[in-house]
Specification:
single chain, alpha+beta, OB fold (Dihydrolipoamide Acetyltransferase, E2P), Trna Endonuclease, Chain: A, domain 1, 2 domains, six-stranded antiparallel sheet, six-stranded mixed sheet, DNA-binding
DNA sequence: ACATCTCCTGGGGAACACGA
DNA sequence: TCGTGTTCCCCAGGAGATGT
């Protein structure tokens, strides 16, 4: 996918109220950008780090700037979680994920049950495959980790993916590692043990786990290659 | 006192209702 | 058959209310 252009470069001043961040652009102008990542973002909030923001033309938006990427060391990290789904959507359309090719229909935001939506539903005649995507931004010593804080929603999604399998469908948990300085993916048991154990249990019960490395070359973000993982 | 529930944040996308 | 508006849920966790 291509990020909305032009992208504006700046430095992070502070992130606050979960959805907002103050950023000093290269012009010296200080703007407040929307941060479409309400997670804890551990390790990504180094004040003074280089960031890239895009600007929406939607007059109804309260904060026209969207925070897209932050540079940590030598790697860009994808902040805007909406991009993750766009990257995977594009990869599905282009058959770039071998485990998920051969489906005739790709439906985003697929409803499951009364209160759940999975990121994608892939269909081929009567075959159904539900796919949930997660953006992985936390890393410690070349190991990509998820989640970056306790996530009851994430655990709920895993339990519902197991239900998908019980009902005779295919269920896939797909992690996209949105930084380029990792060689392995693991669940962050020291952060959320319940999630970590549920992920392992989900795999044992037929939920397929995929981990892919993203290639981040602003303004382009694509799926690169499968990353090794240990559950 | 502690646990659980609900609401709230801003933007985005899908489904649905409705009027032209 | 369009376009527009509304509702719901997604992202995740904090705050406050409610229940045990």
């Amino acid at each position: 996918m291509i990020l909305p252009e032009p992208l504006f470069s700046g430095k992070l001043i502070q992130r606050y109220k979960r959805f907002l961040a103050d950023i000093e652009l290269e012009t010296g102008e200080i703007i407040t950008a929307h941060c479409a990542n309400p997670g804890s973002m551990i390790g990504l909030l180094q004040n003074g780090s280089q960031v890239l923001v895009s600007k929406s033309q939607d007059p109804k938006r309260k904060f026209p700037f969207s925070w897209e990427l932050i540079k940590i060391g030598e790697t860009w990290v994808v902040v805007n979680t909406a991009n993750t789904n766009r990257v995977i959507h594009e990869a599905l359309l282009k058959n770039q994920i071998p485990e998920l090719i051969g489906y005739s229909e790709i439906k985003p935001e697929a409803v499951w049950g009364d209160h759940t939506r999975f990121d994608f539903l892939l269909r081929k005649e009567s075959d159904q495959c539900f796919v949930e995507v997660k953006n992985v931004t936390l890393a410690e010593n070349i190991i990509a980790l998820f989640p970056d804080s306790i996530t009851q929603r994430g655990t709920k999604h895993l339990n519902e993916l197991m239900e998908v399998v019980r009902k005779g469908h295919r269920a896939v948990m797909c992690f996209l590692v949105s930084r380029e300085d990792c060689q392995l993916f693991k669940p962050a048991a020291h952060i959320d043990l319940v999630y970590s154990e549920t992920l392992r249990k989900a795999q044992e019960n037929g939920v397929e786990v995929l981990v892919y490395q993203a290639k981040i070359s602003p303004p382009q973000i694509t799926v690169d290659y499968p990353l090794k993982f240990e559950l």
